[in-house]
């Protein structure tokens, strides 16, 4: 008896989404279908794969073993289909990416694309959203993945995650004014974060500004101040802050795909690939995830 790749894909979706309900939403299937797929997969392997724990799920030891093989199986399947279906496209594509998304999420996505399409040359540049959008408008970039302005509807939204307040773990910020570490003008969520801080009763001041994600993270790690970051860029040594610390709630942030006015066939192909790949990325797990219990190995 062979593993059914559709069942394997459902299995990984349950792990990545932290439960059956969210996996159903990701795969656009009913929860009963997700449950049926997992039951059929457990019948094939002859072992239980999940322990149900309240609203979440935990992998059994057998489930953890299957997870490693499942990821390899789907990667090979998707890579084979991509190579077999790809048109004979050549050319150069100039791609712009925001650093706080590119460094965590996209290296593997781009590596797979270039491996499958060696005749397409990528020129990738990372910068703040305002710079990327300016260069796209000037014709200096072909495709941009960028953080979308709040409540904007332009571009093709591909990714959504919370903004969160963070500070160095164990570092108290009880004294006023509250020190803020910020990206400079050009960061798409800076205006909204500062607007909410101005409506907050607690005094504050910007004490450190950096154009790079690494610079902002380093300043927070050193205890210079607190900052607002996309949830996926929160480091393990950071502590999540909130209303109890006198801070306002923050909105979600979105990554959208924008295409230039003149697009080559290579650029169109990359745009389609990025759209599919980014929407299927799993949110990276953190030990203290805000919204979902982490998938654990049941002993």
Automatic annotation (TrEMBL):
Functional description taken from the UniProt entry: NodD regulates the expression of the nodABCFE genes which encode other nodulation proteins. NodD is also a negative regulator of its own expression. Binds flavonoids as inducers.
Keyword check for Transcription: yes
GO molecular function terms listed in the Swiss-Prot or TrEMBL record: DNA binding; DNA-binding transcription factor activity
Parts forming coiled coils: none
InterPro entries: LTTR (IPR050176), LysR_HTH_N (IPR000847), LysR_subst-bd (IPR005119), WH-like_DNA-bd_sf (IPR036388), WH_DNA-bd_sf (IPR036390)
Keyword tRNA-binding: no
Family: Belongs to the LysR transcriptional regulatory family.
Protein known as: DNA-binding transcriptional LysR family regulator
Keywords recorded for this protein, A-Z: DNA-binding, Transcription, Transcription regulation
Origin: domain of life: Bacteria
Lineage: Bacteria, Pseudomonadati, Pseudomonadota, Alphaproteobacteria, Hyphomicrobiales
Cross-referenced Pfam families: HTH_1, LysR_substrate
Domain HTH lysR-type: 3-60
Organism: Bradyrhizobium elkanii
